[in-house]
Amino acid sequence: MKKNFKDSLDHVLKHEGGWADHPRDPGGATMKGVTLATYRRHFGKNKSKRALRNISDDELGQIYRSGYWDKCRCDKLPSGLDYAVFDAAVNSGPGRSAKWLQASIGAKQDGDVGPRTLAKVKQHDAVEVTDTMCDRRLTFLRSLGTWDTFGKGWGRRVESVRTTAVAMATGKTPAIVPAVKYRTTRKGSTGRWVRKLQQALEIHVDGKFGRGTEAALKAWQQANGLEPDGIAGRVTYRALGLLA
Question: Domain spanning 2-169: which CATH class is it, in words?
Fold first, then answer.
């Protein structure tokens, strides 16, 4: 629905988080889910990482609307289903999201949400389509070789999308959960995020990032295909299921 873009974007940004520039992240420098390559494609090749880090709300809205929402014709979809399609497009690409939608309604899976797909959507219950689409999304994610590493975070995201989308479809007003403001931790750090990390690693929890925690983290990162740098940031937290 046309009125749902802003609320849907708020929900998407809850999952996308803030600044990240980890050497093992294939997307490279990213701010609020927007990569440097995407930012440059929309606003010029001369845009720097610093400019991306300070991206404006207007720029952010333009990228998400033109690159994902409009491509999947979410304005034409029922409330709730529009958000489910939008989030999947952001996370896995507009074409794949469109195919999941089409598979859920028995339409031709060409990756293009056109008049025939929209007509098919009207023949189905929006809640059922949303639920089926989320199931298909999870099935795809579980098939990826990186599921063992990132599956906890991915699974949490899809289930959150399912719950929120169904609430929207049934006329309820889902609460906008603030984006989790995590803290990058390393040797010498203390506090809540160190405790979260230690709990996830199933080691002694004291909130102090010492040599033992660093060794355990490096071993876990190495075993899960991440850069074994002993630093816990967005990529590591997502892989541990601490961020969606």
Answer: mainly alpha
157 CB-contact burial (10 Å; exposed 0-12 / middle 13-18 / buried 19+): buried
Token representation of residue 65: 């609307």
Confidence of residue 103 (pLDDT cuts 50, 70, 90): very high
Give the pTM.
0.76
Alpha-carbon span 134 to 103, nearest angstrom: 11
Q: How far apart are CA 52 and CA 45, in angstroms?
A: 12
Domain locations along the chain: 2-169, 192-240
d(CA 118, CA 15): 27
For 31, the enclosing helix (H) or strand (E) is: strand 30-31
The answer to whether 126 touches 132, Cβ cutoff 8 Å, is no
pLDDT classification of 163: cutoffs 50, 70, 90: very high
List, for residues 18-27, the tens digit of each pLDDT value. 787 766 555 6
H or E element: which one contains 219? helix 211-223
